[in-house]
Design goal:
- α4 runs parallel beside α5 and α10 packs parallel to α12.
- β11 (about 340) and β12 form a beta hairpin.
- The strands form four sheets. Strands 2-8-7-6-5-3-4 form a seven-stranded mixed sheet, sandwiched between helices.
- The protein has about 400 residues and is of the alpha/beta class.
- The protein folds into two domains: about 5-45 and about 310-405, Aspartate Aminotransferase, domain 1 (Alpha-Beta Complex), CATH 3.90.1150.10; about 65-305, Aspartate Aminotransferase, domain 2 (3-Layer(aba) Sandwich).
- It has helices at about 15-30, 50-60, 80-90, 105-115, 130-140, 195-205, 245-250, 280-290, 295-305, 305-335, 355-370, 395-405; strands spanning about 35, 100-105, 125-130, 155-160, 180, 210-215, 240-245, 260, 265-270, 275, 340, 345-350, 370, 375, 385-390.
- It is built from twelve helices and 15 strands.
- It binds pyridoxal-5'-phosphate.
- Pyridoxal-5'-phosphate (PLP) binds next to α4.
- Pyridoxal-5'-phosphate binds near residues 41, 131, 245 and 253.
């Protein structure tokens, strides 16, 4: 038996284990230290009462022969597909058919699995720094080439997003076949305006490029002019697949539900230039390898869209965004160069005095007892930057910022 030769090429994911090891060593030598983590990318507030009630109701349905459900449709129940279209898309002027929306157990699986319907010969572009799943799944799918000593994969096209270009990705010099865009962005916390996103859609239309648009954080957008869906852009249905998640929107990180939109108008090409429906391919892939998201979870997701459900999730999002505002304002006052945090739960800061991301990590832990994530862990262009998240408790955000402001670490 031979293994997939791509797997040994993947470096172990040292980022979060390195962080955990450093924090644990620090706690051992400073047993009384109260270490605050602003590094977590997971929600901390519980599921809301409306979601919990829907879950209980659905569980009770499963207990009676009359209302019990076995296998559901692999693509998801119509009640959820229709509710999503009515609430997430129609109000933004986007019309979709229920068969264009595929319910899943979260965005991560779909972002990884989408490679099943794409040729190994596609050139793939990513923005850098980047959510690591896009890269690692392309390594597994034979599209990344080899890891070079400077931390790049030889076949991937990297689009650097740094302060010098305002963190706005520039169209690549070399034409990719597939490009991943994530907005609001993890890790940088930035967004794209309508004009900027339209530029990418136009480029994709003219160059036959597929855009994989990750909108896992769209619920955090505060500015009313920022697009929530790529389909708000003219022509996008012909070139883009959009990934959405209930994880950060409604606290479903441990419950697992997301969805992927594959428009009927989106076509891929065979080597002989025949047009093929991507919706058809994804449907074929899902009905073969996926047996549907649990009924009770889909009922819970449906409840998110009720008026009370919306009110409750908006309160939680406001809570996290208030943390983001506290962190952002405190850092700005302390003289840091800060990005993100106004339309996303992530704050991206430039390390002072050109310190490396890891040197800043160590200093922040030692001097302030605060943990964050070194930017270089998200790709070579993240060196010299640092990510903080707003998903913790408000008291901790206040305390962490106070420590930073009082410390020698301030700029
Ligand atoms: N996309 C981005 C950019 C993320 O940061 C995450 C989770 O952290 C996901 C997708 C995965 O979301 P899910 O929990 O739906 O798998």
């Amino acid at each position: 038996m031979l293994i997939n030769p791509q797997f040994p090429k993947l470096p172990e994911s040292y980022l979060f284990s390195n962080i955990a090891a450093k924090v644990s060593a620090f706690k051992q030598s400073h047993p009384k230290a109260n270490v605050i983590s602003l590094g977590i990318g997971d929600v901390t507030r519980p599921l809301t009462p409306t979601v919990i009630e829907a879950l209980h109701r659905a569980v009770d349905e499963m207990a009676s022969a009359k209302t019990f459900r076995g296998y559901g449709p692999e693509q998801g129940y119509d009640f959820l597909r229709e509710t999503i279209i009515e609430h997430d898309f129609l109000p933004r002027g986007v019309k979709l058919f229920p068969d264009e929306v595929f319910i899943s157990d979260g965005a991560k699986s779909d972002l990884g699995n989408i490679g099943d319907i794409l040729s190994k010969d596609n050139r793939v572009a990513v923005t850098d720094p980047v959510y690591p799943v896009y890269i690692d799944t392309n390594v597994m799918g034979c599209r990344a080439g080899d890891l070079t000593p400077d931390g790049h994969w030889s076949n991937l096209i990297y689009i650097a997003c740094r302060a010098e270009n305002g963190f706005v990705p520039e169209l690549p010099q070399e034409r990719p076949d597939v490009i991943y865009l994530c907005y609001p962005n993890n890790p940088i916390g930035t967004v794209l305006s309508k004009e900027e996103l339209q530029k990418w859609v136009d480029y994709a239309v003219h160059n036959r490029v597929l855009i994989l648009f990750d909108a896992a954080y769209e619920a955090y957008i505060q500015d009313k002019d920022i697009p929530h869906s790529i389909y708000e852009m003219e022509g996008a249905k012909k070139v883009a697949i959009e990934f959405r998640s209930f994880s950060k929107t409604a606290g479903f990180t441990g419950v697992r539900c997301g969805y992927t939109v594959v428009p009927r108008a989106l076509k891929g090409y065979t080597i002989r230039n025949e047009k093929i429906s991507m919706n058809h391919l994804w449907n074929r892939r899902q009905s073969t390898k996926f047996n549907g998201t649990a009924y009770i979870i889909q009922r819970a997701a449906e409840a998110v869209f009720t008026p009370q459900g919306q009110k409750e999730i908006k309160e939680n999002i406001a809570y996290y965004m208030n943390n983001a505002a506290i962190i952002r304002a405190g850092l700005v006052e302390a003289g840091f160069e800060v990005y993100g945090g106004t339309n996303a739960p992530y704050i991206w800061l430039k390390t002072p005095k050109n310190m490396s991301s890891w040197a800043f990590f160590d200093k922040l832990l030692r001097e302030c007892r605060v943990v964050g994530t070194p930017g270089v862990g998200f790709g070579p262009s993240g060196e010299g930057y640092f990510r903080l998240t707003a998903f913790g408790k408000k008291e901790n955000a206040i305390e962490a910022i106070e420590r930073i402001r009082q410390s020698k670490i301030r700029v």
